[in-house]
Amino acid sequence: MTRKLRWAMVGGGVDAFIGAVHRHAAALDGRYELMAGALSSTPERAQASGRALGLPEDRIYDSWAQLLECERARPDPVEVVSIVTPNHLHFSVALASVQAGFHVVCDKPLVHTATQARTLEKAVRDAGNLFAVTYNYSGYPMVRQAREMVLGGVLGDLRKVRVEYHQGWLAREDHGKQAAWRTDPALSGPAGALGDIGTHAEQLLGFVTGQDVASLSAELTTFVPGRAVDDDANVRLRLRGGARGLLTCSQVEIGRENDLRLAVFGTLGTLSWRQEEPDVLVFDRVDQPRQWLTRGGPGLGQAAQAASRLPAGHPEAFIEAFGNIYRDFAAHIRAREAGEAHTPTYPTIRDGVRGVEFVEAALSSSRDGGTWVDLPG
Amino acid sequence: MTRKLRWAMVGGGVDAFIGAVHRHAAALDGRYELMAGALSSTPERAQASGRALGLPEDRIYDSWAQLLECERARPDPVEVVSIVTPNHLHFSVALASVQAGFHVVCDKPLVHTATQARTLEKAVRDAGNLFAVTYNYSGYPMVRQAREMVLGGVLGDLRKVRVEYHQGWLAREDHGKQAAWRTDPALSGPAGALGDIGTHAEQLLGFVTGQDVASLSAELTTFVPGRAVDDDANVRLRLRGGARGLLTCSQVEIGRENDLRLAVFGTLGTLSWRQEEPDVLVFDRVDQPRQWLTRGGPGLGQAAQAASRLPAGHPEAFIEAFGNIYRDFAAHIRAREAGEAHTPTYPTIRDGVRGVEFVEAALSSSRDGGTWVDLPG
Amino acid sequence: MTRKLRWAMVGGGVDAFIGAVHRHAAALDGRYELMAGALSSTPERAQASGRALGLPEDRIYDSWAQLLECERARPDPVEVVSIVTPNHLHFSVALASVQAGFHVVCDKPLVHTATQARTLEKAVRDAGNLFAVTYNYSGYPMVRQAREMVLGGVLGDLRKVRVEYHQGWLAREDHGKQAAWRTDPALSGPAGALGDIGTHAEQLLGFVTGQDVASLSAELTTFVPGRAVDDDANVRLRLRGGARGLLTCSQVEIGRENDLRLAVFGTLGTLSWRQEEPDVLVFDRVDQPRQWLTRGGPGLGQAAQAASRLPAGHPEAFIEAFGNIYRDFAAHIRAREAGEAHTPTYPTIRDGVRGVEFVEAALSSSRDGGTWVDLPG
Amino acid sequence: MTRKLRWAMVGGGVDAFIGAVHRHAAALDGRYELMAGALSSTPERAQASGRALGLPEDRIYDSWAQLLECERARPDPVEVVSIVTPNHLHFSVALASVQAGFHVVCDKPLVHTATQARTLEKAVRDAGNLFAVTYNYSGYPMVRQAREMVLGGVLGDLRKVRVEYHQGWLAREDHGKQAAWRTDPALSGPAGALGDIGTHAEQLLGFVTGQDVASLSAELTTFVPGRAVDDDANVRLRLRGGARGLLTCSQVEIGRENDLRLAVFGTLGTLSWRQEEPDVLVFDRVDQPRQWLTRGGPGLGQAAQAASRLPAGHPEAFIEAFGNIYRDFAAHIRAREAGEAHTPTYPTIRDGVRGVEFVEAALSSSRDGGTWVDLPG
Question: Where is the GFO/IDH/MocA-like oxidoreductase domain (chains A, B, C, D) (predicted)?
């Protein structure tokens, strides 16, 4: 193993949930060293967080703009910037980071509008940087296994796919800071549950099936009185490969924690996976007993094995899956430095763009009473 | 316990799945004695089946018309006729049975058209007979518990309900006799999966929530090439009480056996139930640990206890739930004889009518691309 | 199907749990007609119960002795007597019933002492009657499947077997009538949990492995103060075929309902089954993904299919398994009448004797601090 | 957060399972920096592993003795040494490390004999160093929750505890390098499964109940022909607080991955936990519905919350639990530097000593046919 990548965060102060997740994920395999940060939009909190994380005094920045400027000017600048701010800042920070020459890891949903998304995608292409979007659920080994099986034809022709994402933590009006910005359209973007978790579901579906959403009919609902964004969505899908789909997500289902589920149905069989029991992939074939494929267990392909760190029965979970995104991103950076080819397994800016287009189409469909809306090809 | 009810079956020869279920269910509590039958539309098979079941020679009939006529003429006629033929015969046999003065147990879906359904409902009202439709899943004790809790306000105001019914046995084109008639519109009616299992889901939803479907938007799909009816359906619902709903059903999900699930979401909590683990009802409340309510276990109400035969941990299942329909129907007949009031817990002709109206509305909506269709009030 | 068997019960008044179970089980397949009973040792309750069950007035008996005497004298005597009294009466009633020429179904544990058991076994042999002991758990289809697989060598050489039976309903001192007689040695016999549920576990183990217990080392415990019998047992086993075993049972594990589990381990694989999810048999083989075999599903052998009534996913449970014992007992009686051979799948007097010998050996071992005790060969 | 602890490993070359686990666990929270290593007993592999891990050239050592000597001589020596060699080296390396003044993290089982264990314990006491034994399962948040509830009296008086540890990976004779040293008494110590996984079970039991094993009766078995150590154990326990216990472990149960389970039974309730679903703790109380406590969910105490990194439903697993051991060890070192009190939640040398005493007693009991053996007080 060579030198660790020099790494900065924008957002992710010590009391932010997702910032800590990124730090654990990046730390897990020892390929990143956090060296700089603009960890909060409030300078005092940015300073306090930087010190708490042990950053060098001179690399604790009061703003992301300052971070980009000062780091560019250093002889040993950071190489990767992770953006873990509320959504409304993603576009500006990501665009500036890309244009400043940094590789970027950005949280989802990528940006607020498809126009922003395509602008950013073009900037990435122009700059030639690497760009990851942390659709972390595609990092689970058994999700990788599902993709390998589906693309390998194990299920025959795909007929339908169902992806569900159930949460309950926004069932009440008041749920603290994490809830506040996620239900404020100025910060979260025009979608609520659909943007926050529906985009995860959409990306997972595309990752496993290899088929994008061609068109959709959506019904978005706001159950909690006074909420300015949707907290529940139900989307019928037609995929480019001809399969049909159903995507549902909700944040008002009391008792559901982080209940993301995927089921893919083909002419020859079915695969089923649940995020809360992530080491298992259930495999059904016509007229055969059900099989349980387990991470680390017998019968797995290369993709799952490469994404796994422990033997069977020693469970891996959320941070390890998230870490797989960071690990592969580091590998891509190092491969590029070495002039070697590397096929990313991490979600790229393309996934990010598709997610934003999906949200826009669903909002449009729902406004029109569930009419079918095509997505850009 | 008084004398057993004298009972006849139309349909349900020895090789028919559902006929045997009715016999087990009716036998379980010793309140019915099978005394007559027109067990097949083929006289030879009707005779063979009747003998195999030990019916008296003179009460094995070659046709249902003969059965009704001869039984009426006897001094000791049967009191209850169960109709377990393919769907296309339900209307004629039920109407004639009602008009002949028999109490009727009829399988679902009730009939092919809403017009038939309402005609039959009127005949029942005019005749003053009792009429049960074997929506058997509402017979499960923990479904009864769910209804009692929901109607008692335990979940607060209902926000949404999701009912799913997944099967895989029709994923291939050729699946034998049981499949053949269910995919022939002349025999099964205009709907496939939606009629066969979607109506169960619709009735279950109404039973537990106490709210009927007010309007719907449906997408029906036929995945198996050459099939003349839908084998998959996805229906958005608005209920009369204001809740939203999602009903999905499919018979092409390989590996799913009889995976009927219900989840009811309110402002205060959630109830979740699965038919394949029927003795458990999962209860979630805001900011409380999840509870598992079990049949026979602590914390149950009167409805579940009345529908239960065994202590906790001694599982009850499909036949026992089905038997609860038959047991309560017998109790109603006896109560009426005794001049006593009886509130049925079994599904009545009203449930049957609603199911047919639901199917008609869904077919109409789907033909029109998923437009919203109102149901009769 | 021919005429139903004329059937009597000793014990099993309307408020007794196990009597109702026998009635449901016998009713399920329509092969028995309850015609006589001595349903309680208290004449008033015997009469009330008999009337409630609709027995003919002249066949409601005040004592089992009267029942045997009067039925023998009738032209149409009952053919089968089921004994569902508290344990202390099993020996007298069973012996007299056998000697009076009736076929007998007797609850478990068979009798109080091995001497009684062997006396009764000899009487059965001398009389030539049929005798079933309702070790009902061996009636589950997936238990039959396990036996077929184990005896067919699918697991290779057996190494060990673990059978566990966990209940919690006797965790407190006061648990009502069902508890009272089960913890009174005069009524239940010298063992408590070991006799009540440990014998089920022992029989299940022998049924599935085809190997009897050769020797054992037991630790019995009485956790509840003042209780006169064990409420918890832990027994190391050596089986005749060379496998080792562990049998544990308890009635003081709060929250456990009727948690009977079996796992059989061989050189090639493992089978695992749980009574509370009885339609599933988990099958593990070396270096193969886990398989779920389900009742009614693909990959089952003849034994499971013969014991099943419904398609996959339509759960069967306790009463159906119990009914399989009754159904096969009826088939044996009818086969014998017809002069045909019949290999019983129901547990016979032999199983009953072994259970009593097991209890005696375990009591002896535990009294001696867990010393190894051989069982009769 | 202050400076990271300077850290070395003895053992744990790049192809060793457990070394990588320690590195992931220590990396997770950013409190250790791996700076030196004697990663293999083969110098070439030690060098290759050190380079692969990015260690400075001058701190890649060919032997543990060299590591201790050279690090002591540096101005910036490592502060913590983790010992992840095969078991036979634990004693020498740990003793020398302690005597050289390093804090030590040592894998389990601690050493081969109770005499060694007590010698080492005395050395730790004399040196005043900190010493952790990586009984990692006690690091799971819901295990911490169970301990807090049990010690807080939620279960009433403890009656019994059952801990089971089932694996199947040693069911065959040949299982590669990981198996080889574990079944060679010269390397693994006198016990096989009992040492490798039974000690985990014993520590978990003591951790959760707060009661040590007072005496035991053991039956160890070697199922695989030619194996020199046990691969299966069954141990009856009496705990110092009066509770009874059962500990079973096996490595020949085909299909079992890492199936560690704990159930604690008291006069008021039961707690149940499974390592393969580690975020759930099942809580049963007399006459109350079962509760599911989940990591991050409602109703948890301080101990579980302190050991958790993610919200409910975002699963944590093996590495996170292991990381809790490392994190608390770092906290203890820093607290000591700061002159602050710190109550360790990580397992200490005392746990290690008890584990070795447990193994010795069990071996002795089993050799004598299961006789009861007292453990040192």
Answer: 143-271
Residues of chain C contacting residue A292, judged by C-beta atoms under 8 Å apart = 289-292
Domain C5-136+331-348 has CATH 1.20.910.10: no
CB of B167 within 8 Å of a chain A CB? The answer is no
Burial class (CB in 10 A: 0-12, 13-18, 19+), B185: middle
- pLDDT for C377 equals 82
Q: Is the pTM of this model over 0.95?
A: yes
Lowest pLDDT segment from B274-278, C188-192, D348-352: C188-192
Partner C contacted by A311 (CB < 8 A): no
DSSP E strand stretches across chain D = 5-10, 32-38, 80-83, 103-106, 131-133, 158-166, 213-221, 232-239, 244-250, 259-266, 269-274, 280-285, 290-294, 373-374
Q: How many CB pairs under 8 A join C and D?
A: 94
Suggest the residue from B167, B319, B324, B334 to mutate for an interface test with chain C (most C CBs closer than 10 A).
B319
pLDDT tens track for B3-47: 899 999 999 998 778 999 999 999 999 999 999 999 999 999 999
CB atoms within 10 A of CB B115: 12
Judged by CB atoms closer than 8 Å, whether chains meet at A217 and B256 is answered as: no
Confidence of residue A109 (pLDDT cuts 50, 70, 90): very high
Domain range list for chain B: 5-136+331-348, 140-311+354-367
Asked if the C-beta of B210 comes within 8 angstroms of chain C's C-beta atoms, the answer is no
What does the pLDDT look like over C318-348, one tens digit per residue? 999 999 999 999 999 999 999 999 999 999 9
State the Cα–Cα distance between residues B313 and B316, nearest whole angstrom: 9
Interface residue of D259, D310, D324, D334 to substitute, partner A, most A CBs within 10 Å: D310
The predicted-structure confidence for B90-131, as pLDDT tens digits, reads as follows 999 999 999 999 999 999 999 999 999 999 999 999 999 999
Angstrom distance (rounded) from CA D46 to CA D13? 7
Mean pLDDT computed over every residue of chain D: 96
Say if residue A1 is exposed, middle or buried (CB neighbours under 10 Å; 0-12, 13-18, 19+). middle
Closest by alpha carbon to B218, among B204, B197, B232? B232
The verdict on a CB contact (< 8 Å) between A255 and B269 is: yes
A1 vs D contacts (CB less than 8 Å):
52-54
Are residues C253 and D266, on separate chains, in Cβ contact within 8 Å? no
Partner-chain contact B292 D289, CB within 8 Å:
yes
Q: Do C219 and D234 touch (CB under 8 A)?
A: no
> ipTM of this model?
0.97
Mean pLDDT of A10-19: 88
Contact between A278 and A140 under an 8 Å Cβ cutoff? The reply is yes
**At residue A1, does pLDDT exceed 70?**
no
Structure confidence at residue B177 (pLDDT): 67
Q: Which long-range contacts (CB under 8 A, 24 or more apart) does A339-347 make?
A: A344/A132, A345/A138, A345/A144, A345/A303, A345/A307, A346/A132, A346/A139, A347/A132, A347/A133, A347/A134, A347/A135, A347/A138, A347/A203, A347/A207
Report chain B's mean pLDDT, rounded to a whole number. Answer: 96
Fill in the DSSP letter of residue B195: I
The answer, for B298 touching chain D at a CB cutoff of 8 Å, is yes
Say yes or no to pLDDT of C186 above 70: yes
Confidence of residue B293 (pLDDT cuts 50, 70, 90): very high
| Residues on chain B touching C317 (C-beta within 8 angstroms) | 314-317, 320
**Nearest CA among A95, A136, A85 for reference residue A115:** A95
Chain B window 355-374: which residues touch A at a Cβ cutoff of 8 Å?
369-370, 372
Chain A residue with minimal CA distance to D22? A28
Please tell me the class of the B140-311+354-367 domain.
alpha beta
Query: Do C27 and B23 lie within an 8 Å CB cutoff?
Result: no
